[in-house]
Amino acid sequence: MSSPAPVVLVFLDPAYPDGRVADAAKPQLLVTDLGVTRGDGIFETMLAVGGTVRKMQAHLDRLAGSARALDLDIPGQDVWQRAIAAAVARYRAGNPPSDAAADELVVKLVVTRGVEGAPAPTAWVQVAPAGAAGRRQRETGIDVILLDRGYDSDVAERAPWLLLGAKTLSYAVNMAALRHAHKQGADDVIFTSSDGRVLEGPTSTVLLAHVEKSDDGTAVKRLITPQLDSGILPGTSQGALFAAAKAAGWELGYGPLEPRDLLDADAVWLISSVRLLAPVNRIDGKEIGTPAVKKELTAELSGLFAGIQ
Fold first, then answer.
1. Among candidates 276, 272, 194, which has minimal Cα distance to 233?
2. Residue 74: C-alpha distances to residues 11, 55, 126 (Å)
3. Which fold has domain 8-130?
4. Element (H, E) at 192
5. Contact partners, residue 221, CB within 8 Å, separation at least 6
6. Which of 54, 73, 97, 296 could form a disulfide with 103 if both were Cys (CB 3.0 to 4.6 A apart)?
7. What does each of the 309 residues of the chain score in pLDDT, given as a tens digit?
């Protein structure tokens, strides 16, 4: 039986400027914490490579946006930055990487509303090794199925209390969708709205590409993602890759997208901070794009994304 992966846990505590280190193997949360009893809280998940956390500012900004949506008072970004640095350094000191793959760490920031009746939230940084499954899916691609999320594409504006644009701890539906996909023999899910729009994955953002020939014979590459006002979480990875792709000469677009747009694309990907860019091989059993073009586009975009810090 293999031993559990090592985890470093650092709580944000006003009495400890760089955070309070805790034993992840021992209980740390009270059963009355509202993050446990009601899923009332927010989180962010980042990737650290070679000890450097990628897109930290974008994640801290999104964490602050989620906190505003939940009327949650959280520690300042400078406090988070010190705790993140301390947690990553502590992990690497106790677990020297054996190779490049072992030097990928998942850095998770979590805030709950705290113990019921308490004046302050509970906040911590958690560092653990990245799993092999994400790296494998970057290389081999994934099969996905389309699932109805049960909301129309205008509901986020009409009902902001649903918190569709915030990254909350209430992930039971997302995890149920992934379990359903696995039972169908698929790896992941792309949600659609009840009015037929493409939305996002349970833990990722959807991208698609088209390649066309211009009048002078050069390739025109266009990268497209669903509209951000359709009740999806703004992807930090999507935003960073769009900026890099634009600088490299790609054209950019934002939906609205329908399932047929995915099926007609030259390539489709799910992108996230830890798994990075995972090419979609099949959607509901239908092959997507052509292998050669998809491989070429994936290599180019993965190269652009690898240079992002």
1. 272
2. 13, 20, 16
3. D-amino Acid Aminotransferase; Chain A, domain 1 (3.30.470)
4. strand 188-192
5. 209, 210, 211, 249, 250, 251, 297
6. 97
7. 456 779 999 999 999 999 999 999 999 999 999 999 999 999 999 999 999 999 999 999 999 999 999 999 999 999 999 999 999 999 999 988 877 667 899 999 999 999 988 889 999 999 999 988 988 999 999 999 999 999 999 998 899 889 888 999 999 999 999 999 999 999 999 999 999 999 999 999 999 999 987 777 688 899 999 998 888 999 999 999 999 999 999 999 998 999 999 999 999 999 999 999 999 999 999 999 989 999 999 999 999 998 887
Is the distance from CB of 236 to CB of 58 less than 8 angstroms? yes
Contacts of 4 (CB under 8 A, 6+ apart): none
CB contact at 8 A, 272 and 240:
no
The phi and psi torsions of 252 (rounded to 5 degrees) equal -120, 150
Domain at 136-306: CATH code: 3.20.10.10
Where residue 292 falls (left for φ over 0; alpha for ψ -120 to 50; beta otherwise) is: alpha
Burial class (CB in 10 A: 0-12, 13-18, 19+), 143: middle
What does the alpha-carbon distance between residue 278 and residue 265 come to, in Å, rounded to a whole number?
Answer: 15
User: DSSP assignment of 5-38, as one string?
Assistant: PP-EEEEEETTEEEEEEE-TTS--S-TTBHHHHS
Tokens of residue 33, six digits? 């914490």
- Cβ(12)–Cβ(79) under 8 Å? yes
Q: Is 301 helix (H, G, I), strand (E, B) or coil?
A: helix
Q: What is the pTM of this model?
A: 0.92
Residue with tokens 């301390």: 86
Give me the residue spans of the domains in the chain. 8-130, 136-306
Is the fold of 8-130 the same as that of 136-306? Answer: no
Distance CA 230, CA 200 (A): 10
